[in-house]
Design brief:
With about 300 residues, the protein is mainly β. The protein contains one helix and 21 strands.
Length: about 300
């Protein structure tokens, strides 16, 4: 797991800049690893409905959604679903202590250029976890490491002081949920090769980090397209300084908060204080029963 000690301001600035890109990458490798300990019991305390787990990867929990706009649903009468897909494929912590960012749902599915993985994580600790990332390892039936991948975690903008200046960084608040995506997995990786997936969520614990105004989302709605479902909405700059290069990510989720895919939109423009940007995302093939939406942007010069 990640280092929960307070890092230097220089390290945090680098981490914030890198993770704000929310990029995904993969790096095939021929390294090996022994078989992990028994698959942990991922059962979570249910909050609604009958959520008795059928297996470690069937634990169910209702979505709490760390979203920049209220989660609104569709297909509300659809049946509840498993928290992990494929249900037979374990997704286990790579360290003996899983840490305070907990994976409670994930989807590994075929995308246009290969397998893609989407994950829902929750901060089970008592302090904001900042600059968080997702690190993945893929193992075959002989416990050989097939390759690795990583992805940024979508969360909310926080700020803290290093004693001389204010530093902005994306953090997951205690008890809140964030989403992650890794859309560039090792080339040629197939489901039938896999015995299990391992995960880590490196992050910094920053006790005095506080949420700050920034880009917010509103009026998010579904748009039916021939190739799937897109989303339209509005980004508003709620800060008192300009922001630029807004990026939106919308994750449709099933009844237990499992992300089914990711639709995105981005623009190279500056939004003044109280200004807005109307966006439309790419499409996803599954609508889900709810959605979790996130927006990021960078501070722009006010000159």
């Amino acid at each position: 797991m990640g280092d929960n000690s307070k890092p230097s301001s220089a390290a945090l600035i680098v981490a914030s800049a890198l993770l704000a890109l929310l990029s995904s990458c993969s790096e095939p490798t021929n390294s090996t690893k022994g078989e992990p300990s028994a698959v942990p019991n991922m059962t979570l305390e249910p909050t609604v409905g009958d959520t008795t787990p059928q297996s470690p990867n069937d634990a169910e929990t209702s979505p709490s959604g760390e979203t920049s706009v209220g989660v609104s649903g569709s297909d509300a009468g659809a049946p509840r679903d498993s928290a992990f897909e494929p249900a037979w494929l374990p997704n286990v912590p790579l360290d003996d202590v899983a840490g305070e960012l907990t994976l409670f749902a994930s989807t590994l599915s075929q995308g246009p250029n290969g397998l893609e993985l989407y994950a829902a994580v929750r901060n089970d600790g008592a302090a904001p976890l900042c600059g968080a990332a997702m690190s993945l390892e893929f193992y075959d039936h002989a416990d050989q490491l097939l390759g690795t991948a990583s992805g940024g975690i979508r969360s909310a903008l926080y700020q803290f002081s290093d004693g001389s200046s204010l530093i902005s960084i994306y953090c997951v608040a205690p008890g809140q949920t964030a989403m992650a995506a890794a859309t560039t997995l090792p080339e040629g990786l197939t489901l039938d090769q896999l015995k299990y997936i391992g995960h880590r969520f490196p992050a910094f614990q920053i006790d005095d980090a506080k949420p700050v105004p920034g880009a917010t989302l509103s009026q998010v709605e579904e748009v039916a397209k021939a190739e799937g479902t897109a989303y339209r909405g509005t980004v508003t700059n709620s800060a008192d300084t300009p922001i630029s290069d807004p990026k939106v990510a919308v994750f449709p989720v099933n009844g237990v908060g499992r992300p089914l895919g990711m639709a995105t939109s981005a623009a190279m423009l500056e939004i003044p204080p109280a200004g807005t940007w109307s966006f439309e995302t790419s499409t996803v093939s599954e609508r889900g029963v709810d959605r979790a939406a996130f927006v990021t942007a960078t501070a722009a010069s006010s000159e």
